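User: Please predict the structure of the protein below. I'd like the answer in structure-token form so I can feed it into my own downstream comparison script.

Assistant: Understood. Taking the following sequence of 104 residues as input:
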Amino acid sequence: MTPDEYVEAVLELVDRIPPGRVMSYGAVADALAERSGRASARLVGSIMARHGAAVGWHRVVNASGAMPPRIAAEARARWLAEGTPLRKDRVDMKAAGWRPGEGV
């Protein structure tokens, strides 16, 4: 898979995350690892920072359910609008976590 194909695969996967559900950067990387040969949460984060505006960027969080401070307020507003389970200022990863192939 070329770098451009990987970017497209990440964005396609993120676009499939249902409203009110999330994946961590690492879970996105893991879900694509076998077919892409890549398994880097940091690379997924970089792709989301550069290209994520076209998809549900707020549905990809760090492993603890948080967002970087500069976008946390906007992400929280989107989580609340979608009914995403929260624990204080973070997503409740146990309740909101999603995996490809899983129903809503």
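That's the full token string. The CA atoms of residues 20 and 32 lie 22 Å apart.
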